[in-house]
Amino acid sequence: MTSSAPAVRFRAVARHFGAVRAVDGVDLDIAPGEFFSMLGPSGSGKTTCLRLIAGFEQPSEGEIEIFGVPSAGVPPYARAVNTVFQDYALFPHMNVLDNVAYGLMVKGVPKAQRHAEARAALALVRLDSHGERRPAQLSGGQRQRVALARALVNKPRVLLLDEPLGALDLKLREEMQVELKALQRKLGTTFVFVTHDQGEALSMSDRVAVFAEGRIVQVGPPEDIYERPRTPFVARFVGASNVIEAGLAQALGGPAAPCSLRPEALSLLDGPAPEGWASLPGRIEDAQYHGASRRLLVAVDAATRLAVALPAAEGAGLAPGAAVTLGFPLSALWAMEAV
Amino acid sequence: MTTAVLAAPRGPLRGLSDFLLRRPGVYLALLLTPPLLWLGIIYLGSLFALLAQSFFSIDEFSGTIDYTLTLSTYGQLFQLANLDIVIRTVAMAAAVTLASAALAFPIAYYAARYARGRMKAAFYLLVMMPLWSSYLVKVYAWKLILAKEGIVSWAAQSLGLTWLVDAILAIPVIGGPSLSTSYIGTFLTFTYVWLPYMILPLQASLERVPHNLVEASQDLGARPGQTFRHVILPLALPGMIAGSIFTFSLTLGDYIIPQIVGGSTLFIGQAVLTQQGTAGNVPLAAAFTVVPVAIMGLYLWAAKRMGAFDAL
Questions:
Q1: In the CATH scheme, what is the code of domain A8-229?
Q2: What is the reported pTM?
Q3: Are B222 and A106 in contact (CB < 8 Å)?
C-alpha cells in the first residue's frame, strides 16, 4: 500500500449476470479525498460498480484496488469502505443510537465508548437529540442523515453513496446536497456518489463519470462534462443540450461532426446574423415560462427541434405556431465523436 | 351527446352498496359480527365455563360435583403425582419446540433467501404434504418405524450400529426398552408432526427481512455470525415465537401421540382425558386444562418483555 495509490482503481473490470453485461470493461482511478460521481440512466452499471467497491459483487473480469490493495475475494465486512444505501437500510429493531453504533459494536468497542462516538456522529448530522428514537419515528430526511452518521462513525477510507437523495423531496434534496458537500470538505473522505440526477452530479462533484450500457462514456470535471460532451449521449443526458447532426452543422458553417449546442447559447434574432454567427429560421412548438428563464422548443427542420433558454424578459408573448429566427455564435458549436 | 358524470343508481344491490359506502361503520360491523359471535360465544364462552369448573370440587364418596367455590382442586393439581405430569409435559413441549426451531431455521432460511420459482413451489409442497395425510396414520407409522423390530433397529443392525441404539436407549429417564416405548420416541414423533407449524411462520418472517439490512450489516463490518445474531435472528424472532406457540401449545394439549408412542406415564392431555372420562373428575380435568393456558400466557408475556415483538 502506497500513499500515492488511488482511493479506488478499476482495471478492465466487468461484471456479467448470465448474458447481461452489467459492467463491461471499466477503467477508473478515483483520487483520495475526491468527491466522485457516477452518473447514468438506470441499468447503466453505475450501481453495480458501487456494489463492486463495497464487495457485494465480485468482478467477473478485471481487478479492483482500494488504496492500492487488491480487493479480489475480500468480503464486504473486511473492507474499509462504508455504504449509504438508497433506502437507508436502517435496522428497525434498534434505536437510532444503536444503529449508528452498530459498526463499532461488531468490532467489539465497549458500550460507553461506542455510544459516545455514535453521539458525536449524530451531532455531525445534527440529530444528537434523536438517539433514543426508532427509525420508524423519523422523517425521510432524518433517516437519511442517520444512515450517513452510521457509515461515517466507522471512519471509512471511502464512503459509497447509492442514490442517497433519491427518496427526498426537492427542497430537502437541495439542502442535503449542500450538507453532504460541506461534510465531505470537512472530513476529507473520498466520496463515491451514484446518481441519475445530472444536476446533483454537476453541483456536488469534483469529477463525474457518465455511464451508459455498462461502460464509462466520459469522465472529467463537471464543466467538461457539461460544456464539452464527448458524445451525443452525454450531451443529451447531462445538459439536455441540443445535438446538431453533422450535415446541418456543416451547412451552418460549423465542423463536419455532430455538435452539441447548449440551449442558453441560442437567442432570437430580429435582423441579419452578426459576423461569426449562424441563423436558423424555425417555428415555435412549445413555450414555457420558468420564472428565471423562458424555454422554447423550436422546429427548424423536419428532423430537428432545438431547445432554447432565454432570459425571462425576452420572448414575452411568443406562442406555439409563431415563426422566429434563431441565432448563435458558431464558437458555441462543440464537435463530438459520432457514435 | 354527453355521458353522465355520475351514473344513476340502479337496482337494490346498488342501493345497498351505496348505503354501505356512506356508512363504513355499518359495513365493518356486518363483516365482523359473525366471527366475533363465534369467538365470543363458542370459544371464550366455553373457555370461561371450563375455568369455572376448575373452582368446583368433587365429592369423594358420591362422585358428584360439589358446586361451592373452592381452591381445593388446584391443591390437588399441585400434589406430587399431578405436578409430575405437568412438569413432564412442559419439559417435552419445550424440547419439541427447541428441536423444531433448530430444524426449521435452515429450511425456512433456504426457502426465504434462495428458493425461487419451482424450488419455492417444491418447498411449500414438501412442507405441507405431511399435513395432507391423517395425523393418526403418521403417528402409527412412527410407532412402526421406532418399534423394537422396526425400521430404525433394522437399519441399525444392517449398519452395525445396534450398540449406538442400545446406548441411546440406556440413557436414564428418556431411554427405555425400545424407541417406540421411550420419551425419545414421543419426542421424535411430536417434532415430526409439528415441524411444519414452525417452518411456515418462520419462513414468512424471514421472507420479510429486507436483504439490504443483511448487506448493511456486512458493510458495517459484521462477520456472518454477527449478522445472523444481531440482524437476522432478532427480525425473525416474531415468526419463531409464532411457530413456537404452535409447537408448544399443540404438544401441551396432545393426548394421542404419548398414548401410542412412548411409555406408560401420563401427559397433561391424557390426564384430562382420564379425569373427565373414566375418573369422572371434571373439576380436576378443568384445572389440568388451565395449566397450558396459563403457561402460554406467561410465555407470551415473557417473550414480549424480552422484546421478541419489537421488530413487528
A1: 3.40.50.300
A2: 0.79
A3: yes
